[in-house]
Amino acid sequence: MEPPARGDAAEAAADAAAAELLARVTARIEDLLNAECSRWGAVDARAAVPVEAILELVSAGGKRLRPTFCISGYLAAGGTVGGPDADKAAEDAVVAAAAGLELLHASALLHDDVLDNSPTRRGVPTVHAKQAALHAARGWTGEARRYGEGVAILAGDLAFSYANRLTGGLPGPAMEIWSHLGTEMLIGQQLDIALAAEAVPDPELARWIAVCKSGRYTIHRPLELGASIAGRSDLEAAFEAYGVAAGEAFQLRDDLLDAFGDSAATGKPAGLDVSEHKVTLLLSLAAARDAEVARLITDGEDGSWDPVALSAALLASGVRQDVERQIDQLVTAARAALASAPLAEGWQRRLGAMAAQVAYRDR
Q1: How far apart are CA 139 and CA 173, in angstroms?
Q2: Is residue 56 part of a domain?
Q3: Total domains present in the chain
Q4: 88-116 and 144-167 helices cross at what angle (nearest 10)?
């Protein structure tokens, strides 16, 4: 995630502090995974396969949104970096928390790709697709698809384990937030697959899923986690209101990119949600306003959706323009949530700019 435009020396200092902490997060993750690759590779090359899969995924890029919001919550709350007055224990804790968030996200992506049957992630084959192809190429026994999915599921479980290893020493209040974050993400995922299986548009439930999987997991809880490590529980309400609004905008943008975006830019196949019968927030909103979209969803309840016809109906429905207006309103709400928060003016501007970045991104 690119830093917001700098306006003064204080914001330049915030940029430098955030960049330093984010570099330490990357180093913490790489050190852990490289050590684990060596450890298990010495036992047997096959034992290191899931660790290598995690390392390849986190090294392939990504926006690092959750670590960035965690670090921003810490710095906005007055957390220190370097210097004689720095709290070294708090610095180490926020680096551990941010690294844990990135590995938790890796776990979610590995599992999500299996659930969505996605062939690519960040422009390269997904773990389950790559391992299934390897199984088929080498003529191993059993079903190639199940082998690939098995490796990906184990890699996701292992990433979750590593995330918990990194965050195991967090202070009590921060650990409570960490627990809520993981639970909300998983419950949101369960509701996501349930809604896809039922193939019934439900805007309110789809919005709640967006709150769990994006609002809380991506923005609210990481911010709250960072602020908690800095000792600022008074920011909880403002960060929740900001995070839920910015997170819903983030999810709506994600839905728009899936439905109408360029797969070369996103690194994921275009129209994947439609092809996998996922009743996203975008699709639920479109069905509520457009009879043709609703008809195509109802006609395809037996699993026979016509992705081409549904994509065309989405485009013709005008929902894209409505959702763009809704995103504008959510970004405004996120910024308004910060207006009365006990934050330095520079951090109000910075977090407001970050809400716009996640809402108006092109990948």
Answers
A1: 51
A2: yes
A3: 1
A4: 160
pLDDT reported for residue 306: 77
Q: What element of type H or E holds 167?
A: helix 144-167
Identify the H or E element spanning 120: strand 120-121
Q: Is the pLDDT of residue 318 over 90?
A: no
Is 4 a domain residue?
no
CA dist., res. 208 & res. 189, Å (int): 11
pLDDT in tens, 121-142: 888 899 999 999 999 999 999 9
Asked if the structure places residue 3 within a domain, the reply is: no
The two structure tokens encoding residue 277: 């019968």
Q: Residue 337: inside a domain, yes or no? A: yes
Q: In a 10 Å sphere around its CB, with 0-12 CB exposed, 13-18 middle and 19+ buried, how is residue 44 labelled?
A: exposed
Give the residue-averaged pLDDT of 79-107: 92
Identify which has the larger pLDDT, 269 or 306. 306
| Residue 71 predicted with pLDDT over 90 | yes
DSSP calls for 68-118: HHHHHHHHHTT---SSTT--HHHHHHHHHHHHHHHHHHHHHHHHHHHHHT-
Confidence category of residue 313, pLDDT binned at 50, 70, 90: confident
Decide: 227 and 77 in contact? Cβ < 8 Å: yes
What is the rounded CA–CA span in Å between residue 170 and residue 216?
Answer: 19
3-state secondary structure of 125: strand
For residue 354, what are the contacts with CB-CB under 8 A and spacing of at least 6?
1, 4, 68, 69, 72, 246
Q: pTM for the whole thing?
A: 0.90
Specify the DSSP class assigned to residue 61. -
pLDDT tens-digit series, residues 194-223: 888 887 788 888 888 888 888 899 999 999
Rg from Cα positions in the chain: 21
Residues in a beta bridge with 273: none
Supply the range of the domain harboring residue 72: 9-359
Chain centre to alpha carbon of residue 145: 26
Question: What percent of the residues of the chain are helix, what percent strand, and what percent coil, each to the nearest 5?
Answer: 75, 0, 20
Tally Cβ neighbours within 10 Å of residue 48: 18
278 three-state secondary structure: coil
Domain CATH for 174:
1.10.600.10
